[in-house]
Amino acid sequence: MRLPAATVRTQVTVPLRFPDGFATTAGVVTFNGLVDGREHIALRLGDPARGAAPLVRPHSECMTGDVFGSQRCDCGPQLREAVERIALAGGFLLYLRQEGRGIGLYTKLDAYALQDTGLDTYEANLALGHGEDERDYTVAAQMLHALGAGRVALLSNNPDKVEQLCRLGIIVTERIATGVYLSPANAGYLAAKANRAARSQLPFVS
Description:
Blueprint: E1 7-17, E2 23-32, E3 41-45, E4 55-60, H1 63-67, H2 75-89, E5 91-96, H3 99-102, H4 105-115, H5 121-127, H6 138-146, E6 151-155, H7 159-167, E7 171-176, H8 187-200
Parallel strand pairs: 4-5, 4-6, 6-7
Antiparallel strand pairs: 1-2, 2-3, 3-5
């Protein structure tokens, strides 16, 4: 599939620090020409070894987990893991404005209310008239092409990310699994993801 070209708009250096004390420095990259017009960013972390594919994680925004530390999901811990692993290996974290698997923040909170009545995370999305997962990685592919990263190692448990990126012209050399962060608060959420993966005969997704 031929994509409209995106270009790098600007890059600034930003120090990062997580609540557990881990700290690093990222080049935060913004873009022109992304097809959905949203303000997605890339974090350039570390330096890949010569000839190695950069390690890349497309991470969908989760305000509740990433910013406020909610344990209803495992997004915050996966973001923390990804930043450290990419800083060591060299590559990019793509921070994508796709809250709630693409349904938006307000609707995700509506879905939380339905989950409190007994629906799982996917059932709640469907009850609100949405798909189980509405994320689209077209902008992720645009960002990678703009960064000169047409060949990547993907840090993800989700084979759909691989399939979409390959279809969009990105060469994925390998998919590297992320951790699973279980807590009493997110056990039902993780069980729903595992059940969905089993129904689809796919590996556990995140």
